[in-house]
Design brief:
423 residues, mainly alpha, two-stranded antiparallel ribbon, 26 helices, globular, disordered N terminus
């Protein structure tokens, strides 16, 4: 059995938590009862208040970790000392397990209250909030980036914001897109608040959308996976050459019903999406027609709620392909899944099987991280429940099959088997 993370949490250092889950990505799948162990591990990922405990202990808190009032008093004192407005209901982060919403001002208020620099702020978003870092393609966050980089106070930052007409992002359209990195480079060169205000007001139209690089990446990946025009996509190639080698449950059910049907040449978004997850087939696909994936994911003992949140789905993919604005988490998780699939299916098609060379897992991790970083997203982190599942699969001899086997386990955990077998 894996060592209890609760023991590690007593040491309060963030590194122990990360190391624990990093080690688990190597060990978990090798266990005979890995599904039971995964259920236990799912309950060991930190809640936000536990992550916050580590953060405040690293930033001067010396009191008892069991005393909620004492911790709240410490946090409030840091806000007041730096002149930052105190968020409401801080105590509920502990008593009701509330989380900080990424799209609110609160994460940035924390950064100012604890006087973080840009790198420390990004680390706070990644490890404590499990979310995207500072997005300079949002006008308000470009100001926060400038302020944290130049060590401005919260009051000085608000003065800059008061001189701007803030733009909310909308649908991405057009071809002459400005990427976040370019805006970030511009802001880094600016030396004074006055010049920043002038730059943002003069370039107002650049902030009419965000996530341009991420959307372009996902659209390019999907085009390669689905195919376009006369060019056959990776998914159809897999279905013709390899998928039956994986789809053992489908073959078993066909035998159960005394017949065998060839997989349909379905290049629809739904068909390919289910295929990537290992859930494509005449029976499984039919099961999903009126139910959708959410029914399988919801309250599933094998899936942490943070992994369930914004889990890649057909609706999110459709919206991204059409340039519609979606949440950061939806974008990031879908990008990870598509890069993971493309990386391993190209190798499988080349070798004729799903096996991979031992010791080469870092190549896939680096590929995913490079895509995430280039789109201004946080790299893979084993303490993130969704990332953990991908990393666990990458550590095995057949990563794509491992991930799909896990998805099948999710399916059977929550599916109505009488409906599934048509009884």
């Amino acid at each position: 059995m894996l060592q209890s993370i609760k023991i590690i949490e007593m040491e309060t250092a963030m590194g122990y938590y990360t190391d624990f889950f990093e080690k688990a990505t190597y060990e978990l799948y090798e266990k005979e009862d890995y599904i039971d162990e995964l259920k236990k591990l799912t309950g060991q990922f930190r809640t936000f208040d536990e992550a916050l405990d580590s953060f405040i202990s690293e930033h001067g808190y010396k009191g008892s970790m069991e005393n909620v009032d004492e911790k709240v008093t410490f946090i409030v004192s840091r806000f007041k000392r730096t002149g930052v407005p105190v968020p409401r209901n801080i105590k509920k982060w502990y008593t009701e397990k509330k989380r900080i919403e990424r799209n609110s001002k609160i994460p940035f208020l924390f950064c100012f209250a604890f006087e973080l620099n840009v790198d420390e702020a990004d680390d706070f978003f990644r490890r404590i909030c499990l979310s995207k870092g500072i997005d300079c393609h949002l006008m308000q966050e470009a100001v926060y980036f400038f302020a944290l980089k130049n060590r401005l106070t919260y009051t000085q930052t608000e003065e800059i914001l008061s001189g701007l007409k803030l733009m909310k992002p909308d649908k991405i359209c057009g071809e002459d897109l400005i990427y976040t990195d370019f805006i970030k480079e511009d802001v880094e060169k600016i030396e004074t608040p006055e010049k920043l205000i002038a730059y943002l007001n003069e370039n107002f139209e650049k902030f009419a959308y965000n996530n341009a690089a991420a959307f372009e990446t996902i659209q390019t990946l999907w085009k390669e996976i689905q195919g376009s025009g006369d060019k056959e996509g990776l998914a159809i190639k897999e279905r013709k050459q390899l998928y039956e080698l994986f789809n053992k449950e489908e073959a078993a059910k066909q035998k159960y019903h005394g017949r065998r049907e060839r997989l349909r040449a379905d290049d629809s978004i739904t068909g390919i999406y289910l295929q990537i997850l290992g859930l494509y087939g005449d029976y499984v696909t039919d099961y999903y027609k009126d139910r959708g994936l959410k029914a399988i994911l919801k309250d599933n003992a094998l899936l942490h709620p943070l992994a369930e949140e914004a889990f890649p789905d057909r609706d999110g993919l459709n919206k991204i392909l059409n340039g519609a604005h979606v949440s950061y988490e939806r974008v990031r998780k879908l990008m990870i899944l598509l890069v993971f699939y493309r990386f391993y299916i190209k190798r499988a098609l080349s070798s004729g099987n799903y096996m991979t060379d031992c010791g080469k897992e870092k190549n896939c991790m680096m590929t995913i991280d490079n895509h995430l970083i280039s789109a201004n997203y946080q790299r893979l982190y084993p303490g993130n429940p969704y990332d953990f599942l991908i990393l666990m699969a990458i550590r095995t001899e057949s990563p794509l099959c491992t991930f799909r086997d896990y998805m099948r386990e999710l399916f059977f955990e929550n599916a109505d088997m009488d409906l599934f077998y048509g009884e």
